[in-house]
Amino acid sequence: MIKNFLFVFFLFSSLAFAQLMQPKLVLQQNSFDFGDIKQGATVSHTFVLTNSGGDLLKITNVQASCGCTAASPEKSELAPGESTDLTVKFNSAGRMGKQLKTVKIYTNDPESPEMTLTINGNVVTGEQTGGTPTIYFPETQHDFGKVSEGEKINYTFRFVNKGQSELVIKDVKSSCGCTAALLSSSNIKPGQEGTIKVEFDTKNRSGKNSKTVTVRSNDPKDGTKILTIYADVQKKGS
User: What is the pTM of this model?
Assistant: First the structure.
């Protein structure tokens, strides 16, 4: 009986060790919203790729969804704990309206050999950019990573009025009572910045959690924005 127990324990320990020694790709951010893009402009955003595993991570291919999008990492091989930048460029020439493009990353991560980045934006002409408010969030997601149960954690999202008239935040609503959102101001003049501080109470929570905050404004083109926070809540003593 003891021998069987030791064998099972050794087997699971070996599997856990093997998983720790594998390469593992982690994306600090998997999407980005450019907001309004003047037609003909080329915009870019840099994503950070990290190897959080215990073996060499090899980036074997990076593939964009169309010819208007280009992406290339600074490094194709990452040692454990090492990071690299992946710059994604979007050429809006010949495009109009809302755009959604993807970039697929292929690596030797055995658990996630293919991961996807998403960029989006709204291509407009010079005439379309004036006269209305435009809400723009540089980021709409934040991952707190591992946190201890019982902690109150918070993150501040920033947004800008890129339009030509006053932006009015009509409503900010959390997905559950464990999440609160504090708005800096409900009226934002053109070119000015506002903030939304999102607080997450991890009391009586465990495991991986994702919560959302819905922001509604008078932006005629994109009046509803969803902010998402993630946290891996660890029980105390675990």
Answer: 0.51
